[in-house]
Design goal:
Chain lengths: ~600, ~200
Amino acid sequence: MSTHHHHEQDFLFKYIFSTDHKMISKQFLITGFIMGFIGMIMSTLFRLQLGWPGESFWIVDKLLGSWAENGVMAPDKYLALVTMHGTIMVFFLLTAGLSGTFSNLLIPLQIGARDMASGFLNMLSYWFFFVSSVIMLISLGVEGGAASAGWTIYPPLSALPQAIPGSGLGMTLWLISMAIFIISSLLGSLNYVVTILNLRTKGMTMTRMPLTVWAFLFTALIGIVSFPVLLSAAILLIFDRSFGTSFYLSDIFIGGQVLEYSGGSPILFEHLFWFLGHPEVYIVLLPSLGITSEIISTMSRKPIFGYRAMIGSMLAIAFLSTIVWGHHMFVTGMNPFLGAVFTFTTLLIAIPSAVKVFNYLTTLWKGNIKFSPATLFSIGLVSTFISGGLTGLILGDSALDINVHDTYFVVGHFHIVMGLSAVFGMFAGVYHWFPKLFGRMMDNKIGSIHFWITIVCSYGVFFPMHFLGLAGVPRRYYTNSEFPLFENLIDINVVISTFAIVIAFGQLLFLYNFLYSALRGPKAPQNPWDSNSLEWTTPVEHIHGNWPGEIPEVHRWPYDYSKVDESGEFVGGNDFIPQTTPLFQNEKNEKH
Amino acid sequence: MTSVSINNQFDTAEDIKKKTAKPLLWIAIVSIVMLFGGWTSAVIVSKGSSPRWFSFDLPFAFTISTLIIVASSLIFHYGLFSIRKGNSNVLKLASIITLVLGVMFIVSQYYGWKDLYSNGIFATGSKSTSASSFIYLVTVFHVLHLLAGIISVLVVAIKSLKEKYNQENTLGVELSIIYWHFLGGLWIYLFLFLKYVA
């Protein structure tokens, strides 16, 4: 069956309308990174405003033009930037960019499949994502500006086009873009689940799958269950905005005029939105947790501790994520009993999360750790998962949450536990699987410098936000200097903004390393990290169908690192035993 | 198209399709269930939170629609039974009848909407409320999904007329039937929900 490369594919189908999962993975990665950089630049610009309110900046003037007269950001455009930063980072970078890249790259390679169940649907998934990205970017340039109601787009602000400039065409485009995005995400998730369940190679039982694949499976399942509910919410909002229904609106005045809406409830939107919104946190986080499990085990040359507990805790997190959405709504006049129920379910998530952290630390413990940039970012994830998770306990408790609701405490919390953890996981994944993506190696030294700048500045940005929040500074305010109450806090904002600027420049190192290595980096060996999993048995150069001959058969789980026999020698002679290695004589009695 | 050559390079393209087509459909159905689940939960939330919520009798046409869609499902399934026994003629007839009943369902829904409208229950505008809009929303979106079902039944009808199905090859018919049964089940759920809960 040596029929690979039997014809040259034309450029259009090889690079553009490709149905090959590896190419689609790269498409997701690059589009996601472009969106991520745009989102990061936005945050740097509005940090300038927050750190030095009202001051004129040359860069703000150049980049924002009419949004910033004389280099000072206009208040409504500040809101547009905050909204778009959140939307782009949560959905475009950390949902599509992260899942799209690594689910596509790793699922077929790690389970031993030629490609996804449906290459065509997979291609559609990317192109829907691309179109939705373009629409979202176009919305930045329309009259009235981009959507400005926050990434959660609560009605009535988002439902009434006449409410603020950013509720006009920008909001309409936001909704259209998100509807297309949801379709993209569903098509992707469909494929991931069906591929994992049906196309595993011989011997690849479910409990021999790497934890990455388990994480992608749960991520896709949560997406399938929760994204349609966001679609249902968005459709209702589109109808309210454009077709005169009153799903979210009732008894509302604007500029002294009575509007003819009757019977709706804005709280309804919050229920529907957060039914997606909370699982979305885990859609963003689980792939990174999976990536980290794989990297920590490989790089500390030890079997992952508690493989089944890892699967169980991911399952528990996935399930619990769908019954906690009310903790975003403690201040909506919710029945206190219901609040207590949501507090209970929310705090339960601490248990599987703690199991995961314990397992990461135990896997690292006394390991022969190789500190690659991927390892560093994985350990960084464990750190942010702990420090962000602890403040989650405060926010999940209704009695405590009400005091810091909608303050910078919340901003600090979710940026650390969701934003940083997911981004660190994504960086770890890119550093680790770069040889698989591009056939070349990234520079370790630049990668390590990138890590240290990133983690120090990340905490520098988000840790002080907790103090702002405890002092009562609300999120999404254009400036905090107008309030005597917050006057003595302005220095904290200067610190935060300074770190934000440094971290933004720090990412240029990554960009340089990524681009230079993709084009000029040293050629990668087939298995650069001495890893056990199946993706490293494929040729370095990408070929259709992944393996030139038969798909290899799997005989063991992927975490046989540093396995020793009774005499203390490594089983098989190396500190790793690839999944394709048949059991040795002295292993036959063990469970595999 | 060259881009799908991976499947063509190996004799497994058919196998992969056979293995994955149904799970793909089932999971797509789960996501549609969640879409309508979102809306019907929204009805419950709205009903509980709005003092101006009102209930009304469903138009009789919706009962007719229910009978039509149940009949179409039974007939379509009889077609599958027959092709499994090798009788393609029954499948031809069954798929065409299903197609006709599908169109009749939409017509019946249309009469239902007309009835609602003439009773002052409006989808949009100043006289509408969220209670009146929801019934249009869920029924119209059900019909939109039914249009996809009708296209799939049309494909089955054409392919059966061309004798593309036989005892071994019934995958296309099965896929279409799963989706069609789902649409019937979804309608019965919506009908009972609108009648007794909303």
